[in-house]
From TrEMBL:
This is Uncharacterized protein. Residues 1-21 form the signal peptide. InterPro entries: TPR-like_helical_dom_sf (IPR011990), TPR_rpt (IPR019734). Pfam families: TPR_16. Residues 47-74 form a coiled coil. SMART domains: TPR (SM00028). TPR repeats lie at residues 252-285. It comes from Saltatorellus ferox. The keyword Signal applies. Keywords: Coiled coil, Signal, TPR repeat.
Length: 298
C-alpha cells in the first residue's frame, strides 16, 4: 500500500474508531478510497484529488456518526409509557377489532392470532388467573415470550417509580416461570419476578396487589430454597396493612394463605388462628371455613 492510500484509510479509521466500525455501517465510505486511488493515476492532480477525497470522507464520517448516535438511543427513550386509562383503551380497542371475542376473561384458544405487542398486553390485562396460564403457553409456543418480556421490561425501566409498571413486569416473569416448568429457567424467571415486585413495593410499600403477588410467589418455591419464612413475613405484613382498611372480600385470601404457610411449617396453632381471624372478617368465605373444619377434625 502506498503513502497516499494509507493516508486516506488512516483518516477513515480514526474518524470511525477502526475498520470494524466501517464494516458495521456498510461500504459507503469506500467512495473516498476509490477517489484517492484514481487520483494516484495523475501525479499532478494527486494532492487536489486526495484533498477532495478526505473532505468526502469527513462528510460521510459525520453522517455515519449521527446515524450511530440515533441508533444508540436508550431503551428508556423508546419505551412505551402506558397508564391505566391507556391500557383500558387498548383492551377496548382489542375487543372492538376482534368482534368474535366477548368482553371479559379471554380463552386463549379462542384467539386466532396474538397480534401486536399492544394486542398481547391487552390480552394479558383482561385475562383472569385461569386463562393467564393458557395465554402464556401460546406466547411461548409461538416464540413471542422474549418479545413480551422485553416490552414489559422497557415499560418498567421507563417508569421506575410507577408500581403498576413494575408489577406488570413481575407478573410477566411469573407467567414465563409457569411455562418453564421444572427447567432451570423457572428459577431464573422467578428470581427476576421477585426483583420486579420488590421494585413495585419500593415505589409504593402499601401496594396490596404487588405484596400479595410477591408473597404468593414466594410460597410456591420448593422448601429446600427456604423461602417460606419470607412468604410468611409478606403475608403478615399484608394482614397488618389490611387491619387499617375497610374489609375487602379479596383480602380473605391473605388470611387463607398465611394459615396455609403456618400449617406447612408445622405451626398448627398459628394456622388455625389465622383462618379464624379471617373468618371473623369474612364469614361467608367457604375456603377459610373448610380449612378450620379440616384442622379441627370437624
Amino acid at each position: 500500500m502506498n503513502t497516499t492510500t494509507a493516508a486516506v484509510l488512516s483518516c477513515f479509521a480514526l474518524g470511525l474508531g477502526g475498520v470494524s466500525a466501517f464494516l458495521a455501517f456498510g461500504s459507503k465510505g469506500a467512495v473516498g478510497t476509490t477517489q484517492a486511488a484514481s487520483a494516484m493515476k495523475s501525479d499532478s492532480g494527486a494532492t487536489a484529488e486526495l484533498s477532495r477525497a478526505v473532505d468526502d470522507l469527513r462528510a460521510e464520517i459525520a453522517e455515519m456518526k449521527e446515524r450511530s448516535e440515533l441508533a444508540q438511543v436508550t431503551p428508556r427513550a423508546l419505551a412505551p409509557t402506558l397508564d391505566e386509562d391507556q391500557i383500558a383503551r387498548a383492551v377496548a380497542a382489542y375487543f372492538e377489532s376482534h368482534p368474535g371475542i366477548e368482553d371479559g376473561p379471554i380463552d386463549p384458544l379462542a384467539v386466532k392470532e396474538l397480534g401486536t405487542m399492544e394486542d398481547i398486553a391487552a390480552l394479558l390485562a383482561s385475562s383472569d388467573e385461569m386463562m393467564m396460564g393458557g395465554l402464556w403457553k401460546r406466547i411461548v409456543e409461538e416464540g413471542r415470550d422474549e418479545e413480551v418480556l422485553a416490552y414489559f421490561k422497557a415499560l418498567a425501566d421507563a417508569n421506575p417509580n410507577d408500581p403498576e409498571a413494575q408489577l406488570a413486569l413481575g407478573q410477566a416473569y411469573l407467567g414465563r416461570t409457569q411455562e418453564a416448568g421444572a427447567s432451570p429457567l423457572a428459577g431464573k424467571y422467578a428470581t427476576l419476578a421477585d426483583q420486579a415486585l420488590d421494585a413495585a413495593l419500593k415505589a409504593d410499600p402499601q401496594h396490596w396487589e404487588a405484596r400479595f403477588t410477591k408473597a404468593t410467589a414466594l410460597s410456591f418455591w420448593p422448601p429446600v430454597f427456604g423461602k417460606q419464612a419470607s412468604a410468611i413475613h409478606e403475608f403478615e405484613t399484608l394482614i397488618t396493612q389490611q387491619s387499617g382498611q375497610t374489609p375487602n372480600p379479596q383480602h380473605a385470601s391473605t388470611h387463607l394463605l398465611l394459615g396455609n404457610m403456618y400449617h406447612q411449617t408445622g405451626q398448627a396453632e398459628k394456622a388455625l388462628a389465622a383462618w379464624k381471624s379471617g373468618l371473623e372478617l369474612y364469614p361467608d368465605n367457604a375456603d377459610l371455613a373448610s380449612q378450620i373444619a379440616l384442622l379441627s377434625g370437624q
